[in-house]
Write a structure and sequence with these properties.
Layout lengths: L12 H42 L7 E6 L4 E2 L7 E7 L4 E4 H4 L8 E4 L18 E5 L5 E10 L4 E6 L11 E14 L3 E2 L3 H15 L5 H21 L7 E4 L3 E8 L3 E5 L14 H4 L24 E2 L2 E4 L7 H5 L4 E9 L5 E6 L7 H11 L1 E3 L1 E3 L2 E3 L1 E9 L6
Parallel strand pairs: 2-13
Antiparallel strand pairs: 1-3, 3-8, 4-7, 5-9, 6-7, 7-11, 9-12, 9-13, 10-11, 14-19, 15-18, 16-17, 16-21, 19-20
Length: 396
C-alpha cells in the first residue's frame, strides 16, 4: 500500500528536513559502532603487546656441561667424564653433597644405540649427613654441610671412569647427567670449639653470686680477650658452612647436554708385529687436557685443636691508696706468658695509667696460677693479654 500511494505523497520542505535528520542520526550511529569496535581491538592489541613485553625468558639457575677427552675408547679403557657447572646470576647456598665429586654424578643416564637405558652395576652414592650446629647466638640448629655457589662462576668436577659403575660392551652410547639441586635461604658457620667453651664459662661466671664487682668484670674481660684472640687467629682459616634444614627454599632439576662415546671391540695384534697395549695404541698425539680444578673450599678443614689458658687461682688486685686519693681508675692490660705449668712469666704492662695501677695489677697476676694452654692434648706455653679493672665505686 505504501508503494502504491507513494506517487500521491506530497513532498514538502518540512518532510525533506525530517528525512535528512534521520539519515544523519543513522550515519552517526554506524560511525560510533565502528569507533567502539576499533577502540576495543586497539585495547586488546595493546594489552597483548604489554603482556608480551612483560614476559621474560627465565634465567637458568645453573647450566651443566659434560664432556670427555675423546669419543672412541678401547675395550676396558677408563672413560673419564668431566663436568662444568656454570652458575647463573645469583649467589646460591646449596648442599655440599650435590657438588662433591661423587654426589654430582649420582644421576648419570647411559643409553645404547637402540635407546635402551643401561643399568649401573654399582650405584654412585654420596652421603649427606645431618648434624646439630651451634652458632654465635648459642642456639643449636639441625643442619647439613653446605657450599656457597657464587654468581657467574664455574665449578669443575671429574669422574675418573664411568666403566667403574657401568659395564659398557663394545658399541656406541649416549650419556647425560641430571642434578637435583636444592637451594637454601641461610647458612650458619660453626664456632671454634674453644670459643664455645669460653662462652659457656662466661655464662656460668655471670650467674656466680660469690664473685662480684671488679673481680667478676676482670674475669669476663679476660674471657672476652681470649675469644678475640682465637677469632683473630682463625680469621684466615677456611670455615665449614652449614645450612639449616628448615631453611630449604626449593629445588631445581638441572639437565646437562648429551655426549656420545664409542667402545671399540678388542683386536688381536697381527703375528710378527710388536704388541701394543690399548693404552699405547690410543695414546693421543696432543698433550693431555688439564686436570680439572677441584673444589678446595668443599674440603672440610678443621682448625688445630688449641685450648686457651684459664685461671686456676685468681688473686684480685689491691686498689693503690694514691689512686684512691686522686680518684684515678681505669682498665689496665697486661701481656703475659703462661708457661707449661700454668705459671705467669714475662709480665708487661701495655697501658700507662700511673698512680701504681699497673704495679698493683702485675703483683696480683704474679700471685695467680693458671691451667696452661693445650694443643694436641699437651700443655704448651702461650702469650695472652689479661685486663684488670679499677673503679672508685667498686674499689676493694
Amino acid at each position: 500500500m505504501i508503494f502504491l500511494n507513494i506517487g500521491n505523497l506530497k513532498i514538502t520542505p518540512k518532510f525533506i528536513a525530517v528525512c535528512l535528520f534521520l539519515c544523519v542520526v543513522h550515519l552517526a550511529g554506524c560511525l560510533g559502532n565502528l569507533q567502539t569496535t576499533t577502540s576495543q581491538t586497539q585495547t586488546e592489541t595493546g594489552e597483548a603487546t604489554t603482556s608480551n613485553a612483560e614476559v621474560e625468558t627465565p634465567t637458568a639457575l645453573a647450566e651443566l656441561q659434560i664432556s670427555t677427552p675423546k669419543m672412541n675408547y678401547a675395550a676396558n679403557e677408563a672413560i673419564p667424564l668431566e663436568l662444568n657447572i656454570q652458575n647463573g646470576k645469583f649467589d646460591l647456598l646449596v648442599p655440599f653433597f650435590s657438588l662433591a665429586t661423587r654426589g654430582a654424578f649420582t644421576q648419570i643416564t647411559v643409553t645404547d644405540a637402540n635407546g635402551q637405558t643401561i643399568k649401573p652395576k654399582h650405584l654412585i652414592t654420596q652421603e649427606n649427613p645431618q648434624k646439630y650446629v651451634t652458632g654465635s647466638d648459642g642456639k643449636s640448629t639441625r643442619c647439613i654441610q653446605g657450599f656457597e655457589l657464587n654468581a657467574s662462576t664455574n665449578q669443575e668436577l671429574a669422574l675418573k671412569d664411568i666403566q667403574k659403575y657401568y659395564q659398557l660392551q663394545p658399541g656406541t652410547y649416549t650419556v647425560t647427567l641430571t642434578i637435583e639441586l636444592e637451594v637454601y635461604k641461610e647458612s650458619i658457620t660453626e664456632e671454634h670449639p674453644e670459643i664455645r667453651e669460653l662462652r659457656q664459662d662466661m655464662a656460668r661466671l655471670q650467674k656466680d653470686q660469690n664473685l662480684q664487682g671488679a673481680a667478676k668484670q676482670d674475669a669476663l674481660s679476660y674471657y672476652q680477650e681470649q675469644i678475640k684472640f682465637i677469632q683473630e687467629r682463625q680469621k684466615d682459616a677456611v670455615k665449614d658452612i652449614y645450612l639449616p634444614v628448615k631453611s630449604l627454599r626449593g629445588k631445581a632439576s638441572l639437565v646437562s647436554n648429551s655426549i656420545t662415546v664409542t667402545v671399540e671391540p678388542e683386536t688381536n695384534a697381527p703375528t710378527g708385529l710388536q704388541h701394543k697395549t690399548p693404552l699405547e695404541i690410543n695414546k693421543p698425539d696432543t698433550a693431555s687436557p688439564k686436570k680439572p680444578l677441584e673444589l678446595k673450599d668443599l674440603v672440610a678443614r678443621r682448625a688445630d685443636e688449641w685450648v686457651a689458658p684459664k685461671y686456676k687461682t685468681k688473686v684480685d688486685a689491691q686498689y693503690p691508696k694514691s689512686a684512691k686519693e686522686e680518684e684515678k681508675g681505669g682498665k689496665v692490660t697486661l701481656q703475659v706468658t703462661i708457661d707449661e705449668n700454668g705459671i705467669p712469666q714475662d709480665i708487661v704492662a701495655l697501658t700507662k695509667l700511673g698512680f701504681g695501677l699497673e704495679e698493683a695489677a702485675i703483683e696480683a697476676l704474679k700471685k695467680s696460677t693458671f691451667h696452661p694452654a693445650m694443643k694436641g692434648g699437651k700443655p704448651i706455653s702461650t702469650q695472652v693479654k689479661i685486663p684488670f679493672s679499677f673503679a672508685i665505686t667498686n674499689a676493694n
